[in-house]
Amino acid sequence: MSALGHFIEEAGIATVAVALIRPQAERTRPPRALWVPFELGRPFGPPSDPAFQKRVLLSALQMLEARNGPVLLADFPAEDPRETPDPEWRPPIAAAGADIEAEIAALASAYERSRAERGRSTVGLSGLAPAAAAAYVAAWLRGPSAKDAPASPVPELSPVLCLRFAADDLKAYALEAAIAGGGRPSSKQLGDWLWNETATGAAIRELRRRLMADEDERAKLIGGMFLVPALRVAPGG
What we know:
It is a single chain. This protein is mostly helical. The chain folds into 2 domains: 2-81, no CATH class; 100-232, no CATH class. The chain is built from 10 helices and 3 strands. Helix 2 (22-28) links the parallel strand 1 and strand 2. It is globular. The two termini are 30 Å apart.
């Protein structure tokens, strides 16, 4: 993106980037960049906080008025206000053991409530209903390797790509269910619950382990890059 910013500026169009990794911005030197101290995936701060997100956006746009340069890197002055744990938040369900299909079914009412409250959902990347996505993940876990994978239920997707999208949908489904009722848990609270306490998190961790050990290079790539966030991978895992 830094190189693209310079290319666009050569055409006379000013650019500003929002950087989540400061050392990377320092190395790649975009024309203008606002570094923000938020977790990856949240360049404008916490969800459902438009006032704070507007502050970030205006801070980035104000860099277009700066006269110094040609390379300018500024720091956003505030932390994510949602990183403080919410002591009142409680998970939507207790840990459901080892059965991902039963857990996804148990989360259904909380998910539907959350979707109605927010008027939107990020679930749907795979094209599968949550129950079908859970069934597909469970079918993969019953097989010893990618070559024995169940057929993709989505004709235009390969089995391993469908698995990746199904896992993405199940993570989103569980996390959206977890914020039903207006709770404001921190992202760490949500991540700790998903990855340490749920059958969904345990199943996706096991998928990663199996794909990483598979002979199929595409399976290894998807297992290593897309299933479990790097911060949630145990050392040597």
